[in-house]
């Protein structure tokens, strides 16, 4: 029977009571009797009314279309309460239901009364949010199964499951219930993107602030100048980004250019300027800044035609050029660190 002892100790640690007062109304109190009963019929699915869903806690505290969080501020002006004053919502809830929903919002819109974690462990806007805890602990609870606070002790779906644990405590959510993108918790958008978009900025609803993502989109999304976008390794070379290790997750922005950009490729973190073979090809803009939006054309990086080239149309020697020889097409092998010529 000794094999039962670790499991018993595990359940005790996963249900350890914290010194936190009981909350009068939490999400589980309003979810089924109010939201499921009256709201989810319109506010769910691929095209929810007003672009707002109430299918779970995370969606319910999300922003409405004007960018304001549905449950903030914690008073009657919060959109989820203010909408009840509109004619098309009048009488939707009973007085008792309205009081319960109001109490939930004004008390801080807490998810649950479980005392294992701090009160708003699931709210990205809260100082209790588990993402902040992971950052403070250098992400170790999700990568080191030997730790006493390893997520895998209580939760399925952890990137580093605890080998001995096969049964999880009742009510302990599977990590992939929320982190449901390919890659689960380790999906790139979890930490520095938004959904399937792997690069900054983050979701401005949950992470308000200057939406600075630099020129990530310019480099990673197809455009006329770069039909085939770059991957992360182009500028953050040498790391295995499937797991947090090395310089990945060190709270720093580490720029290391892939070898194809040339031995003299450089990035100045103070000025945010880079000089690489991508841009410095004899054109009008040999250096660019990461925070500077520019309208680049064929003359910006290299002359058109480049110095020393024949003046014949580009498509005579290079594929991926339109019939007129004036514009790149989707299959152009452009900005790849090579000179691709096709007779």
Structure description:
This protein is mostly helical and 343 residues long. Helix content is 21%, strand content 2%. It contains eleven helices and three strands; from the N terminus they run ααααααααααβββα. The protein has helices spanning 4-14, 27-39, 57-60, 79-82, 95-106, 130-136, 140-143, 175-178, 188-192, 216-220, 298-301, and strands spanning 266-268, 273-275, 288-289. The protein has a three-stranded antiparallel β-sheet, with no helix packed on it. A hairpin with a 4-residue loop joins strand 1 (266-268) and strand 2. Helix 2 packs across helix 5 (95-106). The protein is elongated. Residues 1-12 have low confidence and may be disordered.
């Amino acid at each position: 029977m000794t094999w039962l002892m670790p499991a018993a100790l595990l359940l005790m640690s996963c249900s350890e009571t914290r010194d936190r007062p009981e909350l009068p109304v939490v999400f589980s109190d309003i979810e089924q009797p109010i939201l499921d009963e009256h709201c989810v019929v319109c506010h769910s699915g691929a095209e929810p009314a007003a672009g707002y869903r109430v299918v779970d806690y995370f969606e319910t505290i999300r922003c409405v279309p004007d960018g304001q969080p549905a449950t903030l501020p914690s008073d009657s002006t919060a959109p989820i309460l203010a909408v009840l004053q509109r004619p098309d919502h009048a009488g939707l809830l009973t007085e008792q239901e309205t009081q319960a929903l109001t109490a939930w919002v004004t008390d801080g819109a807490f998810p649950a009364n479980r005392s294992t974690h701090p009160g708003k462990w699931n709210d990205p806007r809260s100082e209790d949010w588990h993402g902040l805890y992971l950052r403070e602990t250098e992400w170790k609870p999700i990568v080191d199964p030997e730790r006493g606070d390893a997520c895998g002790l209580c939760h399925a779906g952890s990137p580093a499951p605890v080998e001995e644990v096969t049964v999880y405590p009742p009510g302990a959510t599977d990590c992939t219930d929320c982190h449901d993108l390919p890659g689960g918790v380790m999906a790139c958008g979890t930490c520095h993107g938004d959904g399937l978009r792997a690069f900054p900025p983050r979701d401005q609803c949950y992470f308000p602030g200057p939406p600075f993502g630099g020129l990530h989109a310019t480099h990673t999304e197809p455009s006329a100048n770069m039909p085939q976008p770059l991957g992360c390794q182009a500028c953050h070379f040498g790391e295995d980004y499937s797991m947090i290790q090395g310089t990945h997750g060190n709270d720093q922005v580490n720029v290391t250019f892939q070898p194809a950009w040339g031995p003299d490729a450089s990035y100045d973190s103070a000025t945010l300027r880079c000089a690489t073979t991508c841009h410095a090809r004899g054109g009008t803009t040999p250096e660019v800044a990461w925070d500077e939006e520019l309208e680049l054309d064929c003359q910006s990086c290299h002359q058109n035609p480049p110095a020393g080239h024949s003046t014949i149309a580009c498509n005579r020697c290079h594929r991926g050029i339109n019939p007129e020889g004036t514009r790149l097409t989707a299959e152009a092998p452009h900005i790849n660190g090579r000179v691709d010529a096709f007779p």
